[in-house]
Each structure stands twice: as C-alpha cells, then as structure tokens.
Design a protein that fits this description.
homodimer; 400 residues; alpha/beta; eight-stranded mixed β-sheet
C-alpha cells in the first residue's frame, strides 16, 4: 500500500496483530515423495489454522526474484522492497546494535584464508569461533587511517563489521570480496566520483590489516562487501499507526525491525522464549513480529529432514501463540528456502491469515499444494500488513 | 521486471531457454460442448508437459485489454507493453527487412476498392495476390514529392509499407484509413504542430497515387495508417544477458524480435522447419523464441475445428522440442483468439513452464479449466521471462 494512503486510512483501535515469520518457509517437492518439507511435516495445529484462515501465497519482491533476508522481511512489514533497499553493511551494523550514524559508512567483513600467492582458499576462514573473531577484531582496532574514525565490531564466527565515520564519506565503493575461491581480494574502487576518498581509506585499512592477520591462519586475510549508509525510512508507527515490537533472537532481524521503527525486545533463542517474551509484552504493543530462524538454516544446509522437524517444532507452539488471543495472526515466510536447492529461492511463500471476517476457502492443510485453493491467491508480500490491518478494523474506508 | 534491476541481477550460465508461442492460444468454450479449442484438441504430449510444469495464465497487457500482436509478444519478451509501444508502420517496415532509419517515418498501406464516389467497398481490395501488389507498388515508386525521399515496399496480398525519409519528419500524423467500408479515405492530418509538414507530404503522395491506381481495380485506391518511427529500445542481451534468436516465419514477428535485438533466423513455413532451425542453431544462442501462427489465423477466421486441428499439429512436434533438452521450456501465447469471437481477446492466456525446481500443482492437462489449478496463478506476461530466468539459474539474489 502506498504510504500516503496508509497514513490517511490507518486508525488505532486497540487490536493486536501477530506476525509469525518462519524464515525460508516455502519449499519444493522431495524427488522421492513429491511432497515439500511443509507437506511432509506432521503439523496438526497449523492445519487447523489453515482451515480457519484465509490462505494463499506471498510474492516477496517480484516473480522470479530471489530475495535476501532484508527485502523478504521489509515486504512483510509493508515496505516495498524495491523502494526500501538497504545495503548489507548497514544492515549488519544495525543488527549488532551498533549505533550507526546517518553519515557513517558500514561494510560487512569476512575473515578468510589465503595461500602464499594471496589466493582465497576459504572465504569463511574455516568458520572460526566468535571468540576468536572477537580477539582478532580487537587487534584490528589498533589500525588508524587519516581522514576517518574506524570501528571494527565482531558479529558471529568469521563475520565482522567495519564502520568508517568522518566528513564527506560515501558508500559508492565496490566490494573487495570477489565472492569466489581461487580469486585474489580486489582493491576497493569508487563506483562514482564521490566514492574515491572513501575507497582510498578502505584500502589503507586493508593494507594495515595485513600485519595483524599474517600470523592468524586460518583467518589470515579479510574481505569487505556491501558498503552502505543507514537509510532514513518512515516508521511503522508513522505510516500504519501501530506500536510495533520485534521478537527476534538473531541480530540481522532485530536490525531490520529497528530500521522500520520497531522496538527489538530481548528474547532467548528458543520458541519458549519467543512465547514468553510475547506474553510479557503483550499489553505494551499492538503489532508483534516474531521470527523463527531454524527453518531457513535447515533449508540452506539442504537438510530436508531437519526442515521438516523444525516445522513440527513450531507446530507444537502454535497453541501457545493462539492463547495470546491475537485479533489477527499471520503465519508467513520472508522467502522460500527449498532444501533440494539448499538456497533461498523465488518461489511464492505459504501464507495464512487468521482473524475475524475471513472468507472461507477449500484449503484444509498448511502445505504448498493445498494453499493453491486458498482465497487470497498469490499476492505481493507488501500487501500482507494492509490485509491484516483490514481484518483488525484498522483501516478506514477509502473515498465517499 | 524493471530493466535496471534485470541488468543488476541477470547472469550468464550456459543454460537454454525455449519459448514456444502459439499465436492466439487462448480460447472460449464451444457453446455445444462447453470445451474450448484447446480442451477439445487431443494433445497427449502437451498434457504430459502440463503434469510436469508449473502452470497458469499470463495477462498480456492488463485485465480487460485486448492486445495486438506487438504488445502480446513484447510482454512475453519481458518488455512492459505499456512502456514499449510501437506504431504499426514501423513494425510493418521492420518486419519486411526494410532498413528503417531512426529519422524515417513509416506507415502501413492497404490497397482497397472504391466506387465512383470514392466510397470504400472493400478495405482489402479483394486480397489481391502478392505478385499483383508488387507490380502496383513498382509503379507507385515513380511518385516523387518535394521534401522527402519515398520508399514503397510490398508486404503480402493487399498490404504494403510507405516510408518517408528526410529532414525534420514527424510521426504525429493521423491515419487516412477510416477503418470502415462505405466511408471515404481521410486526409492525413497533423496530430501535433510538428506533424504538419509530414502530413502535407503524405497527402501529396496520396494525390500522386490516384493517377497510378485509377485503372488497377480492385486495387484502385490506398489507405495509410500507423505512422511511426522506429523505436530505440534496449536489447534482450543488454537487459537480460541472453543471446536471443527468433525462429519465426512471418515478417511481423521477425520484425518484433529484431526490435528487441534478437537475431531472426531463416526458417521455412512448417513446424518441421521450426524444429530443424532450432536444432541447427541450438549451440549458437541461449534464448529461442519459436513462433507458430496458424492457431491465431484459425481463431480469427472463427474456425473452431481448424484451431483444434492446429493444436493437434503442434502437439505432434512437442517431443522434437523436448529432444533439444531446453533447461526451461515455456509454452505460451501472445493473446487469446477465441474462435467463437473470431478476434483477438483480453482473456488470460494458457502458460506452462517446464524446468528444474518447479513446484507441484494439480494441473493434469493443458486446457483453460485445468490450468486454473496451476501453481503460477494468473500473472503479467512480462514476468514470464524473469520466471524462466529464475528456473534457469540466471538471476542472482536481490538484496542482503
């Protein structure tokens, strides 16, 4: 929905909307059974919801487009992911609670392994531990370059964030990460004239890192990508008149939620923690984004059986979510991650909306084939929130 | 898909995409049987493809819009037909291999029959033979007008092309064809100030044609329409990183394909020729547009039975197309041409996509009612190519 229209029509009314995102929800049929992960899983509670809900599929970005986590979530938050685009570096920085300023430039960093010729032999440095990453990052903080203040922050395993702070910095800088093993790290280059000074600063940091990393095998080099500034976006409260909270354990999703003005609540790693945090904060907000990561991880690992098991784990907690009595419950995914592809994909994502005034349909279970009989059809993910608001009585009539 | 986004995400990978367009594919139920042309035809090979494919319908332009051949094809090539619009004259000129220059203005010409009062009694001059058309055109070439060089080229039967070449020409000129029998040919008028000089040149050509045509009954007058310049569009290669070839026998479709940068291969009139040309050129390109005309002609003639027979003819060649082993095969139409309407129509057009990683659906045969159970739903035709590219692994992930 157009944001000007949303501002004009949105109204507050005390109802509660709960969005459960199962990351990487959509799947593809197992070649031996013809059934997807979701269709293989025993999910009696989700199937009851399917019978009670308006069902369908969301298209995260556009037909054929495989979304990253950013666009996939922004669409479910009501933001057109082709308009509200965020660079990887900014997302990574915001996701670790780094207080990124509007003029800062952030990049995602990876430690990697290089051979004697500088060729990359492992882009992830054997996935060193987060502790080891933190130790190495501490040494990198001693690097100084004229013209900017540098911040280096550990993220998880081999990943870190580099932030440059200073006057006249630009994010028009190319990646040093060639994204291929066997290749040599690239110099940072300006992608527009205003990026030249920043590219030079980045290259000086990389140069300075060599003395630090030479004895840190397997983390004996670093790669940078996704140079980006923090976007200044309208908030969910401004546009949709909702008080939004995020219940997400992983940093990136907390960061995404903050970018649209959600309060990121403290929450533990398990579904019990998610339910407990929702329950404790139920009276303080009226829109809740609850994030479940493990379906995506299993899909990315190509582990069909584990993805099935993760759906069954979610299913066991559905009644606890229903006990909160949300006026509208959306069961959704940010994108598909079919285990047989071991990657994100472009396929439309299963979606259910349970609330008052839903139209009946012939969808009797939560699975990709059954959902084709849903009353919502296949629709852009950015329309999910307006639809939920309508069912919650939060959208006024348009026109006389 | 937005072209900037396509340029950003498209990647080459050696896969082959084959688009088979059955012109005028979609139909409507026969009043006696309740089955469409496609549902009446015995098409066992297409039905097998339906079971193996992601199925659905394309909307060529927008709901309710009946497309001409140009918009219908451009959409399937990935071009938004509301943005990439071409005038009839330019299409006709490009379709006969005329080397239309960017500053030329082209019009489609029809010979027609007029009575003693100049009233049109047959807009197609009894469909004179192409040979007769060529003879008359040769005489029209002797007409000279001050201010522009004129080219007159025969097309087929009663149709020809007029091209004006010179300084400061404009296509803001109205048709002389009233598109109604019983009416009198109209003068060409400027539809904007910059069209005035060109309109005057056109009227001088028409005036000059009278002496030539007076003894050429039934081709004793001419009508002009669709004044247009050649558009300068980005190519399929530029936008989608594909090496595209067109396997089309009819001039208009070859012309359309060339406008988006496809190489129009030499091909004979029959399906065997289509298959042979595809096979001979299979290694030279990675995107093939194969055009089959006769389903549309039968539909336009209101010949339900012949359209059924033409589907059965295509069906017999499906295995030869599969033998080429395309990574993605699309079976599509540029628009519907229901025999009971004897005209193009706005109805969504049957579509199947066969390739890796398609989601299962309940569509068991290639027919309008069965396709409603397809997993693709009803979607804009311009999204078909991005979808095919996704299945071919030719689109990178969007966003972090």
């Amino acid at each position: 929905m157009d944001f000007d229209l949303a501002r004009q029509l949105a109204q507050e009314n005390g109802t509660k909307i709960l969005l459960l995102v199962m990351d990487g929800l959509g799947g593809l049929p197992h070649p031996e059974t013809g059934r997807t992960e979701l269709e293989t899983a025993y999910t009696p509670h989700l199937d009851i919801i399917a019978r009670e809900s308006a069902c369908g599929f969301t298209v995260p970005v556009a037909p054929g487009i495989t979304p990253g986590s950013g666009p996939g979530h922004l669409a479910l938050f009501g933001y057109d992911p082709l308009v509200y685009n965020i660079g990887r570096g900014a997302l990574e920085a915001v996701g670790i609670d780094f207080d990124l300023q509007p003029s800062d430039v952030a990049a995602r960093g990876n430690f990697c392994t290089v051979d004697g010729d500088g060729r990359i032999t492992d882009r992830r440095a054997g996935r060193i531990s987060t502790e080891r990453c933190t130790e190495i990052v501490a040494e990198l903080r001693n690097i100084a370059v004229d013209g900017a203040q540098l911040f280096v922050e550990p993220v998880r395993e081999h990943r870190f964030v580099l932030v440059l702070r200073g006057e006249g910095l630009s994010d028009r800088v190319s990646d040093t990460d060639p994204q291929a093993e066997g290749a040599i790290a690239l110099p940072a280059l300006a992608t527009a004239p205003e990026g030249e000074a920043t590219a030079a600063l980045v290259n000086r940091f990389v140069e300075g890192s060599k003395a630090v990393l030479t004895d840190k095998h397997p983390a004996n080099a670093l790669l940078l990508r996704g140079f980006a500034k923090r976007p200044a976006w309208p908030s969910v409260t401004d546009v949709f008149k909702l008080r939004p909270a995020a219940v997400a354990h992983y940093p990136m999703y907390r960061g995404l939620a903050r970018l649209v003005g959600m309060q990121a609540l403290d929450v533990g790693p398990n579904l019990e923690d998610t339910v407990a945090t929702l329950r404790e904060n139920w009276d303080r907000f009226d829109y809740f984004f609850a994030h479940y990561k493990h379906t995506d991880t299993a899909g990315e690992d190509g582990d069909f059986g584990r993805k099935v098991a993760k759906f069954e784990e979610v299913d066991e907690h559905i009644n606890a979510l229903l006990a909160l009595e949300p006026d509208v419950l959306m069961i959704a995914g940010d994108h598909s991650t079919p285990a047989i592809m071991a990657a994100h994909s472009w396929h439309p994502v299963p979606f259910m909306l349970r609330g008052k005034n839903t139209r009946a349909d012939e969808c009797k279970m939560f699975g990709e084939t059954a959902l084709l009989r849903g009353s919502l059809g296949t629709f852009p993910a950015k329309e999910a929130l307006p639809l939920a608001m309508a069912h919650a009585g939060r959208l006024k009539k348009y026109g006389a």
